[in-house]
Backbone:
């Protein structure tokens, strides 16, 4: 027998041994959903409270930092102005989509002068190879890139982001992108130089 | 039809098959049910948005499989003895040799095998569910077939797809 037939037949034959009841489970799932909603709301309240406290207590320090590290336009325009390796540390709490898709962790983006961007994915991410290569193009502080078009953003060929410098880091804001997970990865935190 | 009714209908139709797919990745009945329930709870939480999608069932399956793969990666530490006990407990009409062999594959290969053979999905969909490229999906499938062929003593013909 071929291995393919054995796998198909074997899996089908094993199904009857796994027949869960649905009736009593339904209410349990709804209760679980309500719990998730409550936890999510509580997290938002805590985050908001933390933000208010941070702004109130730390506002003088924050203002100082903003004065010294206001986003600066990139000069000169073109790929060479951003060439370098950057690290992006993402936590699941920053965006639920990251956690849901197992994409939290340390990402590394190496922007090369030839327009290639080499991505080192977090060790636990489940998107295939740990090293991905894509292209980017910088034009008038706008980055056009096909990042993740072959894995996380299949069907979404390219995206456009506004790039600004914050100190030595890069801050990306979305201009045009219909892939939510790419937006979450690229814009949630500034890209810190390595 | 009311939105909640649509959700209840989808749950009744898909819950069992999601549990089954997850079971073939985790080989633990209770954890498979827990993962499926977590996925359906998340679906309920996002139902307003996801119900407008073309395939809400694909969304919940995707979430469940991803959670299962994450669990399977962690459970490598579980002892072979513990896994064997759970397999035997759920035996019934199951092909235990096949279950044991699949259980020895890495998590992503298991997921590809389940989606490709059990759910009969084309590789493009398998790749989409697992957020990998089609080429990567075929690499996982190729390795899984070769390993299962060795473990089961079955003939591994030309690559599928």
Residues:
């Amino acid at each position: 027998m071929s291995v393919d037939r054995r796998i198909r037949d074997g899996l089908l034959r094993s199904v009857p041994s796994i027949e869960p009841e649905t009736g009593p489970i339904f209410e349990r799932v709804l209760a679980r959903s309500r719990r998730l909603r409550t936890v999510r709301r509580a997290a938002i309240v805590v985050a908001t409270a933390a933000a208010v406290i941070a702004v109130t207590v730390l506002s003088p320090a924050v203002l100082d930092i903003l004065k010294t590290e206001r986003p600066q336009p990139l000069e000169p325009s073109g790929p060479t102005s951003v060439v370098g390796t950057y690290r992006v540390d993402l936590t699941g709490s920053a965006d639920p989509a990251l956690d849901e898709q197992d994409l939290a962790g340390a990402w590394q983006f190496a922007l090369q002068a030839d327009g290639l961007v080499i991505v080192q994915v977090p060790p636990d991410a489940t998107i295939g190879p740990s090293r991905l290569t894509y292209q980017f193009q910088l034009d008038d502080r706008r980055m056009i890139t096909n990042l993740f078009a072959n894995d996380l953003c299949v069907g979404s060929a390219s995206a456009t982001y506004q790039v600004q410098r914050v100190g030595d880091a890069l801050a990306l804001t979305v201009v045009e992108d219909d892939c939510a997970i790419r937006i979450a990865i690229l814009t949630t935190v500034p890209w810190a130089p390595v | 039809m009311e939105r909640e009714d649509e959700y209840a209908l989808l749950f009744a139709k898909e819950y069992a098959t999601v549990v089954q797919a997850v079971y073939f990745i985790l080989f633990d009945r209770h954890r498979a049910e827990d993962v499926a329930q977590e996925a359906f709870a998340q679906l309920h939480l996002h139902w307003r948005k996801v119900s407008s999608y073309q395939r809400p069932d694909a969304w919940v399956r995707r979430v469940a499989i991803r959670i299962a793969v994450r669990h399977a990666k962690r459970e490598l530490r579980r002892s072979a003895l513990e896994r064997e006990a759970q397999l035997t407990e759920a035996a019934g009409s199951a092909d235990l040799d096949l279950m044991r062999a699949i259980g020895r594959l890495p998590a992503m290969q298991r997921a590809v095998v389940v989606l490709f053979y059990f759910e009969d999905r084309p590789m493009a969909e398998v790749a989409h569910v697992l957020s990998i490229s089609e080429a990567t999906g075929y690499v996982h499938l190729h390795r899984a077939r070769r390993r299962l062929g060795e473990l089961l003593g079955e003939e591994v013909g030309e690559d599928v797809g």
